[in-house]
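Obj: model holo form, ligand = threonylcarbamoyladenylate.
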Amino acid sequence: MTIPGSDEAAIAAGARALAAGDLVAFPTETVYGLGADALSPQAVSRVFTAKGRPPDHPLICHVADAGGLALLVAEVTPDAHALAQAFWPGPLTIILPRSQAVPDEVTGGRDTVAVRIPDHPLALALLEQFGGPVAAPSANRFGRPSPTRAEDVTAELGRSVAVVLDGGPCTIGIESTVLDLTTEPPQILRPGGIGPDAISAVIGRPVSATASGPARAPGMLESHYAPGARVEVVGDAGTALRRADELTGAGQRVGLIAPGVAAGGDGPMILARADSPDDYAAHLYAAFRRADAQGLDVIIAVPPPATGIGVAVRDRLARAAAGR
Ligand code: TXA
Ligand code: MG
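Output (holo structure tokens):
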């Protein structure tokens, strides 16, 4: 059942479903999450079944406030406290040693747990009414792009979800930064909207920002975030248009995501407005889904500059391109 999210009744229905051990999809500022009661092993195991996700891939716990963090971690360290003050609610997930409260099912048996407070009024209202932590991965089938609209969740997971809260399109559009605070220096496992410089400024020392390569969050396969269409990443718009011509000539159905290239004429289909890194992030996953809905064979993408969230967009494009 999809309920327009602004409605009090929808939030109450979501909180009741969580309490009953059912799954609730909800919007965050990054992407839609597929939520379950984080303290219930049975509820959490339903998330893995619904997504088709391997059970050793750990989930992020979403909490409403600092008390929620304190429940889940062994200790709220000074770094964690400072980062929470600076960036929560917001697109930063921190990893710390877990407390006894966290079931193995959430962490895939690891002794650490990932936590964030999402910056979305519906998510916060749901968390407050439910009154406990909600384990939620992105609300897509395993290996697919994260959903940024309620209709994407319903299309992909509809039958396994008790309630889908509809908050419209997500404003950021790609997943949170995942920061491991259990290593020295702290390490960014997944780039997102909050970059290494902002984090360093808060904790007063450098963080390691290996934005690519093998030292990644468990479950972050090279092939993640991939649409059905093949993704080709090229350096600039001129190259993209030439490559599109070539592929179209060879009978392929081609779509384009390229900063500064507008729709029009009989060129390739333009899949997203992508003129700034922020626009690129906001529209990337919907563009992937649109390409699949249109039955395209290839998506040609010119990455945004590596500034701000552009770093995270480039990471997702590289993963999507490695996907098939
Ligand atoms: O923006 C987001 O983070 C979204 C919204 C819904 O909050 N959630 C999300 O969840 O992207 P998911 O499950 O798709 O990605 C969680 C990431 C994975 O890369 C996972 O490996 C990492 O967080 N992670 C979770 N727990 C971890 C742990 N204990 N240690 C290391 N990495 C962990
Ligand atoms: Mg995901």
